[in-house]
Design goal:
339 residues; mainly alpha; CHAD domain; 10 helices; 0% strand; globular
């Protein structure tokens, strides 16, 4: 019995040592492996969020749109690793899905922002049934957009998209670069995403205040989101430089998000003011909220140069850093603000 016990334990010990050695000498992940795992994770997140939407969870729409953006960012941001001929149609369908869900999400965000402004104003500055009027108008919009959302999720087009997103496919659409070590290849995808952001910032910098510049800054924010998501995928294998750059990309995203929220809210407030006027209700509070949202955009533009300087400083390690053209010192804030 003693011999049997000894013989049983010894092979177990040897297997444990062998397993540790295999772990220690395991090959580093390839770029394709890292990207495929990211796609799997976001596909799961999309399906979980879809369940929340169908169950009536108010946060489900936001979660679903985040998963859609992240999937698109991975498919587009890693075009060095994924075959664009295969991924481009998938990105097109994801963009369609995002637009279908966007109306409900934007209505929810606008209502939250109006409630925030309403609660922050001194009572003596609130003239008339401002929030009640706004709530009535936006609730009607919310019902319509919710119907659009559920019709989309029940559509054949969405069913086809879900089938395409059945990762991993038997033959992943990898390019030859997918076999390269992730730590060497993924920084090049980060650099490419940063170049895209750089182009959008240049475009915004050249425009005067107004709707066109608002749209250009929104495009810059979307490019920054893609940069951030690409960095998130790469950080586990690239390490500290990517993590620090990702933190700056997140801060820029938040700042440009403030600008976009205000840019979206202002025309809604102006429309609500017109509707209130047609009913014979006071409109002065709507004008005040509109002016406060304008101040909000101006403050973002004042903070933008410093935020962008921090991001570009953290990007100095990337292979294309010297080719970036945007000058944070010459901000769009130097252009006179529009109305």
């Amino acid at each position: 019995m003693t011999t049997t016990a000894t013989n049983t334990r010894e092979p177990s010990t040897r297997r444990t040592k062998s397993s540790k050695n295999q772990t220690a000498t395991a090959s580093p992940p390839t770029a394709g492996e890292v990207v495929l795992q990211a796609l799997l994770a976001q596909t799961r997140a999309l399906r979980e969020a879809e369940c929340k939407v169908r169950d009536g969870d108010p946060k489900g729409i936001t979660k679903m749109r985040v998963a859609i953006r992240q999937l698109r960012s991975i498919l587009r941001g890693f075009s060095r690793i994924l075959d664009r001929q295969v991924t481009r149609p998938v990105c097109t369908e994801l963009a369609w899905l995002g637009r279908q869900l966007g109306e409900e999400n934007d209505t929810q965000r606008t209502l939250i922002e109006l409630k925030r402004q309403h609660d922050a104003l001194p009572s003596e500055l609130i003239v008339g049934p401002v929030f009640d009027d706004a709530r009535t108008q936006l609730d009607q919009l919310a019902v319509s957009s919710s119907q659009t959302t559920h019709a989309t999720l029940d559509s054949d087009r969405y069913a086809a998209l879900r089938q395409v997103l059945d990762w991993p496919p038997a033959d992943p659409p990898f390019t030859e670069r997918a076999a390269r070590p992730a730590a060497e290849e993924l920084p090049k995808s980060i650099a490419k995403a940063l170049c895209t952001l750089d182009r959008h910032l240049l475009a915004a910098q050249a425009l005067p205040a107004g709707t066109e510049r608002d749209e250009a800054l929104h495009d810059a924010r979307k490019a920054d989101k893609q940069l951030r998501y690409v960095i998130d995928v790469a950080t586990p294998v690239v390490g500290k430089p990517a993590r620090r750059l990702g933190q700056q990309a997140k801060k820029l995203q938040d700042l440009l998000g403030e600008y976009q929220d205000a840019a979206v809210t202002r025309p809604v407030v102006q429309g609500l003011g017109s509707a209130a006027s047609a009913k014979g209700h006071p409109t002065s509070t709507y004008y005040l909220v509109d002016a406060l949202e304008q101040v909000r955009t101006d403050r973002v533009l004042e903070k933008l140069p410093r935020r962008l300087s921090s991001l570009y400083d953290e990007a100095a390690w990337l292979p294309n850093a010297a080719s970036l053209q945007y000058d944070p010192g010459r901000s769009v804030a130097r252009t006179e603000s529009g109305n």
